[in-house]
Write a structure and sequence with these properties.
3 copies of one chain form a homotrimer.
Chain A: E1 3-4, H1 5-12, E2 15-17, E3 23-24, E4 26-27, E5 37-40, E6 57-61, E7 73-77, H2 80-96, E8 101-102, E9 107-108, E10 113-114, E11 119-120, E12 125-126, E13 131-132, E14 137-138, E15 143-144, E16 149-150, E17 155-156, E18 161-162, E19 167-168, E20 173-174, E21 179-182, E22 187-189, E23 195-197, E24 203-206, E25 211-212, E26 217-219, E27 225-228, E28 233-234, E29 239-240, E30 245-246, E31 251-252, E32 257-258, E33 263-264, E34 269-270, E35 275-276, E36 281-282, E37 287-288, E38 293-294, E39 304-306, E40 311-312, H3 313-323, H4 326-345
Chain lengths: 346, 346, 346
């Protein structure tokens, strides 16, 4: 994809200074730019980069005056950082929805329908009675099981696997290798020490605007639905067990794990490698620090916790200061005991 | 799949009350049921749900008398919960083994054989000299390397990757994205600071009735076999390093990690995010709490441990109570020191 | 693959004793060997195994004299362990690069080129404008996005997914299910509580001799590059966030997670399940113990740390000894308080 600099300047309502015939094919920082890139200079601290950059164009402030000769074409705007952000988003949106049409070989079962502007990559597999909305992008090696429903503008990156009867909303983005709807981990212990599988016949529901990271796994519910509510964002390698509910706009960082039937409120933040036990309720706007272990419900909205098992973050910090001095404390106790013995003896 | 209500009643040895011509195509709770679903009412506490449910049929106790008008067809049985469980299992078994035959394109190398009732999904890949038993279900995007052996009734969900020479028993279920037999992580440090790979030529053996969760990884042994013994159940995103042995009927929850050459006994329970160091032996029936870190062998059968590094669970709980009060304890020590100083000075 | 025993003896500069017409097709320990295997006896402690082994050939010391009748052919060498290691490496190299040619169906987009001796497995997908060096092995179900560059002798195991514009060096080995270049986890909070995605347009660079474990995920940088430097070795199920830099010859064990923009020095060792916060710098040759949590930079070369949050390992051990005795310490403090009260009261 190549964009004339004039078109970009038009979008940003900026003024072109220099060669206005160039074309742009990528975005970059000043430092890392190559020929064909557009970059930006916002903080005057980094001005010297503009004299060395290989960028073909740079977005600058309206009042920027180069101190010496400069190679890239300039686009003068009011707020270069904002302009660059707008450009980034436009470029990202364009690139994300670039692919259209059907690559062969691909597989689609009977009774399945797809909307307009769909991309079905080579080696993608769609089962029977699947309903897929418009502008959905299904990359190579994606598997979509029987009876799945997918809304509009949703992206399934390469290798995503969607089990039967999962429901996915609009504007979702599922990254490569994510698994949606695998069997919940439910086994009933038998008298002879073996385990008998408890059938897992429910499904997973992703509401609108949900992002799921690469190689993350969401298990289906036993009978009902594991639910990820609208706007929730999940990072990579996360484990979501059966019957979990994640609230609206809750953000979960990489490698966190949520055990079965736990419900998490809306607008919560879970840091990396957090673990949450089963059948626990977490209130709205709770923040859970990295590697924390949650063993019981957190009913207080806005609570911030840390540690394993987790305690309020202020408590954790106060405790940890003393924890590090434990040998010293022990020493003090021994001395105190000696002093007291001396008193008692004499 | 649609089942006449009379057929279901026959299976459950129950009596049909109401419209006995309906057909059932799914199972659900009373609350979440749609048309076509069968549900159950066991606990009288939930009786009001039966008057609102959209279920087409409900399994009830033999002596259940509706307090008011009721829409669904009833099946009267002795124990509704047990009857529903039987139905769940039958349905699950039927659905799990529904797929039969070969979808194209699929790939099978020379010298490979499969038994009766096998399913090979589109884009599945079977290498050379592979032996696959009867009623095995190989979903789309599954890779089976050269020389692999798979027993009867085993299910490989979409995207499972089996490296060469892995052996898998009967009635195993491997969930989507699981990797069986990747190279063990063995590197010999060289004088110049680089690492030289130690070849990993062993394999992985899964005995009968083993379940492996989605995106879980089992490395092959260096020369011999990494072994998962009969009846062991592994959840999602678990890491099993080279030369590990997991005992019969041991259950491991999500995101646990077992380092190289560690041996775990039978009927153990490892909770989520547990980490176990290499070359460690764990006795039978040991329980390891969530996020615990095991750095040395646990030779005592039935031991329960918690913490990182882990200690016996009772000890951990007693220690943790004091841990949370550490700032208070420090305060007490300071006061004691002051008192003692006062005594000494006067 | 079958190798005449004479050929093996030639490679090892050893002397054949016994049947010199046999052929070898695998390597094993004495204990696990089957017919066709070659094994070795180095430690005299294990001599009795040589009389029971099913191996067809055994590498022994030049001066080894069997105490009783022996079935396998012997190869006498100076150092049996070294000889066996050489054999292992040769065998491993041969097996790793065995596959050559194109299996169908496979997909390659326009403008893409591959070097000599390339293997492209069935159902592998290569996008547009991809450059692949010689002797590269692309297994089934691998996805290589548009604009990717891959050096010589690199192996991509089944199901690996490489996003657009990723660069991979020579002699890299990426294990099954690994994801390279998925979007970094960047979202800007909006006033209404929702999150807006920050476009992730950078890439990932793997330098030469990098190993990436199964189902490990490496996110692309926001604008620049996430970089794994030459010789770094990453185990399975690791999370590498956007803009991370991993130094030369650094080794990271399974399930570790590195947050965004963190830089790790060279020749570091990170044990399993380690978590590192974002925007942190780790010096060269630092060792981080299993399950440790790193919340701030470690500027001291060669530092060894443990715990969450991590402290120097010696401190951690001293602290942990006292930690386990906390209830006892509390008891002592209560007694001291009583004694002091007694003094004060008279």
């Amino acid at each position: 994809m190549k964009f004339p600099i004039q078109q970009i300047a038009g979008l940003l309502q900026g003024e072109v200074v220099g060669d206005d015939t160039i074309v742009i094919d990528n975005l970059s920082t000043l430092e890392n730019a190559k020929k064909g890139c557009i970059s930006f200079l916002s903080n005057p601290k980094y001005e010297n980069f503009i004299y060395q950059t290989k960028a073909s164009a740079v977005i600058v402030k309206s009042d920027f005056m180069p101190a010496r000769e400069i190679k890239p074409t300039l686009i003068r705007v009011k707020d270069p950082y904002l302009a660059f952000s707008i450009l980034l988003e436009e470029y990202d949106k364009m690139m994300s929805y670039l692919k259209v049409g059907i690559e062969e070989p691909s597989f689609i079962g009977k009774g399945s329908v797809t909307g307009e502007e769909v991309y079905r990559g080579a080696f993608s597999y769609i089962g029977e009675n699947v309903k897929i909305g418009k502008n959905v992008k299904i990359y190579p090696h994606v598997y979509v099981g029987d009876g799945v429903k997918i809304g509009d503008n949703t992206i399934l990156n390469p290798g995503v696997k969607i089990y039967s009867n999962v429901q996915i909303g609009n504007n979702c983005h599922i990254h490569a290798g994510a698994i949606i709807g695998s069997d919940g981990f439910g086994f009933a212990p038998q008298k002879d020490g073996t385990y008998k599988k408890i059938p897992q016949l429910g499904n997973v529901i992703l509401e609108d605007n949900v992002d799921i990271g690469a190689n993350t796994v969401l298990d289906c519910a036993t009978l009902e639905s594991t639910i990820i509510k609208a706007g929730a964002k999940l990072d990579n390698l996360i484990q979501i067990a059966h019957n979990v509910v994640i609230g609206e706009n809750t953000v979960i960082a990489g490698q966190a794990g949520i055990s079965g039937s736990t419900k998490i409120g809306k607008n919560c933040v879970l840091a990396g490698q957090v673990g949450i036990a089963g059948h626990v309720d977490i209130a709205d706007k709770v923040t859970i620090g990295a590697q924390a272990g949650i063993t019981k419900s957190i009913p207080t909205e806005g609570q911030i916790v840390l540690g394993s098992p987790a305690i309020p973050v202020g408590d954790f910090r106060r405790v940890f200061i003393v924890f590090k001095k434990l040998p010293e404390l022990q020493e003090k106790i021994l001395k105190l005991e000696e002093s007291v013995r001396n008193f008692q003896e004499g």
